[in-house]
Amino acid sequence: MARFDTWESYFYPPPDNSTMRNVADIRDPNALHSFEYSATALRQRQLNADPSLVTHTYDAEHLRAIHRHLFQDVYEWAGEYRSQNMLKSGTMRGFADVNTGEIDSYLAYAKRLVQQTDWGRLDRDQFGAAAANVFAHVNQAHPFREGNGRSSKVFMEHVAQQSRFTLDYGRVSPQVWNQASEFSRPDIGRYDVVPDSLVPVFRHIAVERTSTTTPGVDPAALARSPLSASYPKAPGRSAPTGQQSPPRGPARPGRGYGTNGPGVGR
């Protein structure tokens, strides 16, 4: 495998340096976006049809196996931790530091939360709070150079399988989801996540499980650009037709969405 040990090493050299290196050697970012979506959508359908393709251990290896399966046709480094730190402008700190073992620390704590929770006994409110706490730690770990959102959503679907709920991501707009995820992150100089903003979101997307229930579509993946950040730059857009907005969670003003550039998370 090629070495991905600098920010620039994830991209092709000029003049294609706006496109991430990929298995199909696609140099156009828009074409890569289309290829990535179709390839990962197919792999996700495989996971939905056969959950045994990934061992459900709810730890770092579980998340890495999900990412490896989803992105195996797209990126050579699928399933591997990012080698570079990622951040966003604003008042929040960067994602987990690759130099201090924070990725594993956040994911280990998420595993403990999953294991210590009696998911089958939770009502909707309790489920919303528990799921928000787990996801906030996984999101802050942000272990991969790209594809954290899709991988963590599948991970949360696996967590939810222990409960009487499934997750319908189509019930919340990408803008609400991304802002709640952003607000859950630690402030500068702090380590602990703040999952409060995610609680009403998970409560809203929790759907009582039936014999015919299937995981919901992730609308954010449909519109995601390979050049965009993990969180959209235009959170003011209204939700697509047919989507619902959950009750507003706690606001954390002053947090920005950042811009692309070296060291800026995607």
Automatic annotation (TrEMBL):
Keywords on record: ATP-binding, Nucleotide-binding, Nucleotidyltransferase, Transferase
Superkingdom in the source lineage: Bacteria
GO biological process: regulation of cell division
Region (Disordered): 212-266
Annotated Gly residues bias: 255-266
The protein's enzyme class: transferase
Compositionally biased tracts (Low complexity): 219-230
SUPFAM superfamilies found in the cross-reference section: Fic-like
Coiled-coil residue windows: none
EC number(s) given by UniProt: 2.7.7.108
Domain Fido span(s) in chain numbering: 58-204
Catalytic activity: L-threonyl-[protein] + ATP = 3-O-(5'-adenylyl)-L-threonyl-[protein] + diphosphate; L-tyrosyl-[protein] + ATP = O-(5'-adenylyl)-L-tyrosyl-[protein] + diphosphate
Pfam family, one: Fic
Gene Ontology molecular functions: AMPylase activity; ATP binding
Protein name: protein adenylyltransferase
